[in-house]
Amino acid sequence: MISIAISNATLVLGAKAIFRGLNWEIQHDQRIGLIGPNGAGKSSLFKLIVGEHTPEPGGNIVRARGVTVGYLSQHPELEPSETAFESALAGNPRYAEVHAQLLEVESRLGEPAVYENPKSLEKALTLHETLLEQYAAFGGDSYPERVRDLLLVLGVPESDLPKPLAVLSGGQKKLVGLARLLLLRPAVLMLDEPDNHLDLPGKAYLERLIQDYPGAVVIISHDRYLLDAVVTHIAEIEDGKLTTFTGNYTDYIIDKEQRLARQEELFQIQQ
Question: Does the pLDDT value for residue 259 go beyond 90?
Fold first, then answer.
């Protein structure tokens, strides 16, 4: 199933055309490494998909019904007055909504107008059961502890959790942004160099997460080992064009070398 389809997309920033007539389909179960030289347009393509950039007339970006997209930029924009823990905890606003609704329903169940009316009581109990299931899916009362553990495993020191984001480094802010995104669990996860500030345990955690992620993942990374370990496809941007390959980074390198060798052989024959 196609989660995102890009057709005939041309992106012009200032006086420079980043790419022209780009076509790309992201399937719901693919793990894609997006590669290319610096300045080729990898981050710009991410921003085009999430709506921060707009394609020239004639280009289209279509998401399948119900598909959500989560984007981790190189420099996440977070509320500087919030602490690292508060910002991560707010990463999935649905948790707070469900918790508030659950408290409200539980309060209503104690009202005579509800528990003395069979229809109202049945309706309230059904809603309460649904909310309890959703709340449990988040981890219930242990959700804050789950958020804390995630920050720690990604490499945010425990001593930094109560500090405002304004005093943290850019690398620590990126880790908080990554935690927020992982808690949200969108259908398509787009990660722009997420491993830049991770220590070895954090990289190992990210590797396992991408391998097991129940959706599509597109990752920009210069770590060849990570790409070999997690991706099923490679998408290369070069000279304004996108080319896709099946396999990991090593498969891509072998395929590209073979194609270049064939092109050189044909050139020599023509000469």
Answer: no
Strand partners, 246: 233
Amino acid found at 210 = I
> What's the rounded mean pLDDT across residues 76-84?
92
Distance in angstroms (rounded) separating the CA atoms of residues 227 and 218: 11
Residue 64 backbone class (left: φ over 0; alpha: ψ -120 to 50; beta: rest): beta
The model's pLDDT over 178-228, given as tens digits with 9 standing for 90+, comes to: 999 988 889 999 999 998 888 888 888 899 989 999 999 999 999 999 999
> What is the C-alpha separation between 61 and 72, in angstroms, rounded?
19
User: What gap in Å lies between CA 73 and CA 85, rounded to an integer?
Assistant: 19
pLDDT at 35 over 90: yes
The 216-220 sheet, strands edge to edge: 69-72, 188-192, 216-220, 31-35, 233-238, 241-246
Report the C-alpha dihedral over residues 120, 125, 126, 127, rounded to 10 degrees: 90
The answer to whether 245 touches 233, Cβ cutoff 8 Å, is yes
Task: Say how many C-beta atoms besides its own lie within 10 A of residue 179's C-beta.
Answer: 25
Provide φ and ψ at 65, rounded to 5°: -55, 130
- The secondary structure of 161-219, three-state, reads CCCEHHHCCHHHHHHHHHHHHHHHCCCEEEEECCCCCCCHHHHHHHHHHHHHCCCEEEE
Amino acid at the residue 107: S
Helix (H, G, I), strand (E, B) or coil at 271: coil
* 108, two tokens: 């209503």
For 195-205, what is each residue's pLDDT tens digit? 888 888 888 88
